[in-house]
Amino acid sequence: MENTNTNWSIKSDQSIVESIGVYLKQRRLDINKTQAQLAQEAGLNRWTVTQIEKGEAISLVSLIQIMRALDILHLWDTFSSKEKISPLILAKLAKKKKQRARSPINKQLQSDSSW
Questions:
Q1: Which domain holds residue 36?
Q2: Residue 112 — very low, low, confident or very high, per pLDDT cuts 50/70/90?
C-alpha cells in the first residue's frame, strides 16, 4: 500500500510537476492507452504527453485536456468554491419558509363567498 500522506508544501515545484507526470502516466497505463492514443484523444501531440510524463512543465490547458482524456477531471473538485450564505440572510430565509399548509376547502369557501 502506497503512502498517500504527501506533504506537498515541502516539495519543490519541479518535484510536484514530476509527481503529476508519474500519476498521469500510471493512470494512462492503468486504462491501457498508448501515449499516441492519449494525445489523439486529448487533441495534443504525443510530444506534450511525453513531456509531462517525464516531469517537464506543460501548459495548464494541456494538462486539462490530458485529464479530460483520462477521465479524471473530478480531481479539480478541490478547486471549486461554494457560495456561502451569511447567517443573517439564512435566518431571514428560514422565517419566510411556509410553516403550515392550508386546507383547500377553506380556500374554496373563501372564494365562493359573496361577502
A1: 11-78
A2: low
